[in-house]
Amino acid sequence: MHQIIAFFFTLLGLLFPLLDARAHSPTLTTFPPKIFGGLLIENRPISLVQCFKDEGGDSSINTADFTKGTRMLATYCKNYKIASRSPYVAIVGSTTAYVCSEVGPEICRGETMDVVDELLTEKCGEGAAGHVRLGMGDTNRTTYGRGRVGLPMCRGLGTGRMRKYQFNPIPVYINGSRVER
Known about the structure:
This protein is of the alpha+beta class and 181 residues long. The chain has one domain (33-160): 2-Layer Sandwich (Killer Toxin P4, Chain A). Helices cover 30% and strands 29% of the residues. The chain contains three helices and eleven strands, in the order H-E-E-E-H-E-E-E-E-H-E-E-E-E. It has helices at 2-23, 63-79, 110-124; strands at 27-31, 40-41, 44-53, 81-82, 86-92, 95-101, 106-107, 130-134, 142-148, 172-174, 177-179. The strands form three sheets. Strands 1, 2, 3, 5, 6, 8 and 9 form a seven-stranded antiparallel beta sheet that branches. Strand 8 (130-134) and strand 9 form a beta hairpin. Helix 2 (63-79) packs antiparallel against helix 3 (110-124). The longest helix is centred in the N-terminal third of the chain and has 22 residues, at 2-23. It starts with a helix and ends with a strand.
């Protein structure tokens, strides 16, 4: 009997995050690839554009912080590839700028982030959270996006679902004492 009860709570524990994630999912507006008429970015078709709003209906980000975040990522992208099935995120304040590789190692570019920013502004609105997926099929799928800490990002990465990452600030110590930011 104890094994059945333990199994039930184990199963409930596995399902609860899925139920909780659906209950607190952001509102998504999705634009399918056919509306872009074959527009290419980095010689790859746009396969998905999504705009996000949180539970309260807010989708705004701090555009100055986003610009700083994209510059941080652009600096990284000049020198390195993005690892397979990985998110790379620049966080400034509560604003995120991110690029995600869904399949293999990818080269990212600051110029691509700028084009994606313009496309998101056109489709989602000025300073609204969202992302653009480039590439179709099983190769060269990369997602560029903007958002806030707490909003999901990086569709795919082997799961096909949005991921909600938890970011905690790194504690800062000065002369052995922790400094609160």
